[in-house]
């Protein structure tokens, strides 16, 4: 198939291009930068330069590629100050709203048969009520923490737009928290360094449940969704949702760091805002049963425990 990949140069995009090519697909990889064309070429993609926030550029790029499938992996996360979560996600939120709409319009114009988009399963998209591990049937958070409302609204927009596009097979992959090469959770990178330098404290009871996914496993699941996904949502997470109180000390030990500091919620709120406290104490994890069953996918790193050690 011909696959148009928006976000081809990012953490997941770089894993995805070679896998799609290896599986026999012709990949048109989008970037804003002329200078990243050579890298995309080397990965095996046809480079396409366009700004995802410019509807004319997107329409022209997709029109020229005439893909069978569009994959939307656009984000602009960068460094996030948890006290200003929505502010720091503002550009990502635009990519999830305007960017999604532009790609959908362009895809409809050329009649793509599948539209696969990046959703969120790993850091607080699910409602914070009921059990610790959520399936795709469970609702997204109707009352997000203050500071995360715009981000959750953008995620909701993306999901509704993609799943509501009845002219195509709209698929949302709710990825767990990425770790591994090219992500901020890798040796020497931001999050691992915070843990190593004991600057990632355990807030309150550390009861927030996180679902992780090795970025290579996320890419494998995405190839499966491109080839045989059906309209709907799939959690793309590992087999081992775990509370912060479990994974954070394990990661610290793995990195040879001292045990994470423990701080009460009220102190946590001062330096991580409400969004940070919610992520540490209250978020829910996700189940990958549907992705395994329907996509025939299995993560090569079934648990973050082995995955972190391997990383
Ligand atoms: N589930 C998760 O845990 C999750 C999800 C996403 C990201 N992250 C993490 O966030 C960190 C930073 O990621 P990031 O958000 O900076 O993403 P990234 O991994 O660098 O990828 C962003 C992609 O979006 C493209 N892009 C952004 N704005 C664009 C625009 N206006 N027009 C066209 N393309 C555009 C970029 O292309 P160009 O820059 O080449 O134009 C790039 O290919 C990484 O550590 C990653 O692991 C985690």
How would you sum up the major sheet? 7 strands, parallel
What is the chain-wise order of helices and strands?
EHEHEHEHHEEHEEHEEEHEEHEHEHH
Poorly predicted tracts of residues: none
**Beta strand count:** 15
Small-molecule binders here are: NADP nicotinamide-adenine-dinucleotide phosphate
Mean pLDDT over the full residue set: 97
Strand order of the largest sheet: 3-2-1-4-5-7-12
What is the structural class? alpha/beta
Distance between the termini: 32 Å
> What is the percent of helical residues?
40-55%
- Beta-strand content: 15-25%
Radius of gyration: 19 Å
Overall 3D form: globular
Quaternary state, please? single chain
Helix tally equals 12
Write the layout of secondary structure elements.
Elements: E1 2-6, H1 11-22, E2 26-31, H2 37-43, E3 46-49, H3 55-65, E4 69-72, H4 85-88, H5 90-110, E5 114-120, E6 133-134, H6 149-163, E7 169-175, E8 177-179, H7 190-196, E9 202-203, E10 209-210, E11 212-214, H8 215-228, E12 232-236, E13 242-243, H9 244-254, E14 262-263, H10 265-281, E15 285-286, H11 289-295, H12 304-310
Parallel strand pairs: 1-2, 1-4, 2-3, 4-5, 5-7, 6-15, 7-12, 8-11, 9-14
Antiparallel strand pairs: 10-13
Helix pairs in contact: 1-8, 3-5, 5-6, 9-12
The protein binds NADP nicotinamide-adenine-dinucleotide phosphate (NAP).
Concise description?
With 311 residues, the chain is an alpha/beta fold. The chain contains twelve helices and 15 strands.
Structure write-up:
It is a single chain. The strands form five sheets. Strands 3-2-1-4-5-7-12 form a seven-stranded parallel beta sheet, with helices on both faces. A two-stranded parallel ribbon has the order 6-15. Strands 8-11 form a two-stranded parallel sheet. It is built from twelve helices and 15 strands. Helix 5 runs parallel beside helix 6. It is globular. 43% of the residues lie in helices and 18% in strands. It has helices spanning 11-22, 37-43, 55-65, 85-88, 90-110, 149-163, 190-196, 215-228, 244-254, 265-281, 289-295, 304-310; strands at residues 2-6, 26-31, 46-49, 69-72, 114-120, 133-134, 169-175, 177-179, 202-203, 209-210, 212-214, 232-236, 242-243, 262-263, 285-286. It is of the alpha/beta class and 311 residues long. The model has no long low-confidence stretch (mean pLDDT 97). NADP nicotinamide-adenine-dinucleotide phosphate (NAP) is lined by residues 7-11, 13, 30-33, 36, 51-53, 74-78, 95, 122, 175, 177-178, 183-184.
């Amino acid at each position: 198939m011909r696959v148009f990949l928006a976000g081809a140069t990012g953490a997941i995009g770089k894993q995805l291009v070679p896998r799609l090519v290896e599986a026999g697909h012709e990949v048109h990889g989008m970037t804003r930068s002329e200078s990243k064309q050579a890298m995309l070429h080397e990965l095996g993609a046809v480079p396409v330069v366009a700004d995802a926030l410019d509807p004319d550029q997107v329409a022209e790029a997709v029109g020229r590629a005439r893909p069978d499938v569009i994959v939307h992996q656009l984000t602009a996360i960068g460094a996030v100050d948890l006290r200003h979560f929505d502010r720091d996600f503002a550009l990502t939120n635009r990519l999830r709203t305007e960017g999604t709409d532009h790609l959908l319009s362009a895809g409809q114009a050329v009649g793509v048969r599948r539209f696969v988009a990046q959703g969120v399963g790993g850091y607080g998209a699910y409602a914070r009520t009921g059990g610790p591990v959520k399936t795709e049937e469970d609702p997204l958070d109707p009352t997000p923490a203050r500071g995360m409302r715009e981000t959750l609204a953008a995620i909701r927009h993306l999901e509704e737009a993609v799943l509501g596009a009845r002219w195509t097979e709209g698929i949302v992959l709710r990825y767990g928290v990425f770790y591994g090469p090219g992500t901020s959770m890798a040796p020497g990178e931001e999050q691992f360094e915070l843990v190593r330098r004991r600057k990632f404290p355990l807030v309150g009871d550390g009861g927030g449940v996180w679902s992780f996914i090795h970025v290579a496993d996320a890419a494998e699941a995405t190839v499966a969704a491109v080839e045989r996904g059906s309209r709907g949502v799939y959690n793309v997470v590992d087999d081992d949702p775990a509370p912060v109180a479990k994974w954070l000390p394990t990661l610290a030990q793995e990195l040879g760091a001292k045990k994470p500091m423990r701080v009460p919620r009220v102190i946590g709120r001062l330096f991580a805002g409400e969004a940070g406290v919610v992520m540490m104490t209250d978020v829910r994890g996700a189940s990958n049963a549907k992705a395994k069953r329907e996509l025939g996918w299995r993560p090569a790193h079934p648990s973050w425990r082995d995955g972190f050690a391997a990383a």
